[in-house]
Specification:
This protein is of the alpha/beta class. About 45% of the residues lie in helices and about 15% in strands. It has two domains: about 210 residues, 3-Layer(aba) Sandwich (Rossmann fold), CATH 3.40.50.720; about 80 residues. The structure holds nicotinamide-adenine-dinucleotide and 2-amino-3-ketobutyric acid.
Length: about 350
């Protein structure tokens, strides 16, 4: 404040705060399983009009219709740039991608979408048009040569799916842009996410959502994975909290600029079905593994997330029992409302 009068100092502070307030957060892929819940939470924290939701879909989902929405194909670099400039976007959460099961049926397209979208956003940060990026990776970066139990942060990584290959390559590019161009990119290797507000988008872990939909409608569930396929999973509210916590953490506490391991709860389909049966005694499940079994077999059983715990104080909260209760209540309520 040395050379400024109090009045000038006050005005400069007001302008600074206004610039901060006016800058926007862009969520790309906002209509998806994570996107809807992330937009809702970001709007609660930073204000409805601060969070610009976008997706390739023309229509904004009902759940996020109260705030700004724009149609955007993340591969359209010039439209992305225009949106960023016209709206003073300073942070981007990039969620648009093809997930593991869908990507296997369109490998070349999955590679193109998953990589080109990331490059378009990294380039915006390189040219300092935006300040911060969140980009999710996945447990799919590991492969059958990685240790299966408590898979460490740094280990053998030989993914066998196009999705896993794109996520591992994406992680390397994130670290590269951080080291070379000082890009503030932050990332988490999400486990399979479980939620009821929006349907999952074509992953191998989707069974752990589908099973609840059948349980509340009193239908038998045919599981496409075997009863013993143990995978790392997480309840959505924990994943959203992790996403916001890593983005809010001081930059120098984020020591890993590829992507952090993140652990929630590990279970197999039988353990999940048993827990559901404690609440819905009539629930029945049978097992008919398909091509997704090989994908699940190549992924870890459980994850060591001690680096995330140490660097930015990550801690998972939901246990299997809570998750089952929340899913059954959430889906039953939605059913009654329909
Ligand atoms: P999703 O499939 O539910 O949602 C993706 C959204 O992206 C969709 O709404 C889709 O319309 C949109 N989209 C597709 N192509 C687009 C394009 N060209 N431009 C703009 N939008 C486009 O996926 P999700 O489960 O919400 O996952 C979001 C991110 O998190 C992905 O990168 C995924 O790999 C990662 N992830 C998810 C999980 C999980 O269990 N859900 C686990 C690990 C990692
Ligand atoms: C998928 O199954 O593809 C996703 C993931 C774990 O990345 N849920």
């Amino acid at each position: 404040m040395t050379n400024l009068s109090f009045g000038d100092y006050f005005i400069s502070k007001v302008i600074f705060v206004q610039i901060l307030v006016m800058s926007k957060i862009l969520v790309v892929g906002a209509c998806g399983q994570i996107g809807i819940e992330l937009v809702l939470e970001l709007r609660k924290l930073y204000g409805t009009h601060t969070v610009l939701a976008s997706d390739i879909k023309d229509n904004c989902p009902e759940a996020i219709i109260d705030g700004p929405y724009i149609t955007l194909d993340i591969m359209d670099k010039s439209k992305l740039e225009t949106i960023v400039e016209n709206n003073n976007v300073k942070q981007v959460y990039l969620l648009a991608a093809l997930l593991s099961a869908t990507a296997e049926s369109k490998p070349r397209f999955a590679w193109k979408l998953n990589m080109e979208g990331l490059f378009n956003v990294l380039e915006l940060a390189k040219s300092k048009k935006i300040n911060k990026i969140f980009w999710p990776s996945s447990i799919a970066v590991f492969g059958s040569n990685s240790p299966m139990d408590q898979t460490p942060q740094h280990t053998v990584m030989e993914p066998s799916t196009v999705y896993g290959i794109s996520k591992l390559a994406g992680e390397r590019w994130c670290e590269y842009y951080h080291n070379k161009y000082d890009v503030d990119v932050r990332s988490i290797r999400y486990p399979g996410l479980i939620s009821y507000k929006s349907a999952p988008g074509g992953g191998t872990t989707d069974y752990a959502v589908d099973i609840f939909v059948k349980a509340v409608s009193h239908d038998e569930y045919t599981c496409y994975l075997s009863a013993e396929s143990k995978l790392p999973m997480m309840y959505m509210s924990d994943a959203i909290r992790a996403t916001i916590e890593i983005m809010e953490a001081p930059s120098d506490s984020i020591k890993i600029r590829s992507s952090y391991n993140l652990a929630g709860i590990s279970f197999n389909p039988k353990e999940l079905a048993d827990e559901i049966q404690k609440k819905r005694a009539d629930f029945k499940i049978k097992y008919q593994p398909d091509f997704r079994q090989a994908i699940a077999d190549s992924w870890p059983n459980s994850i060591d997330d001690s680096c995330a715990q140490k660097d930015w104080n990550w801690k998972n909260e939901s246990k299997l029992k809570d998750l089952v209760s929340k899913m059954l209540i959430g889906l039953s309520r939605d059913k009654e409302e329909v």
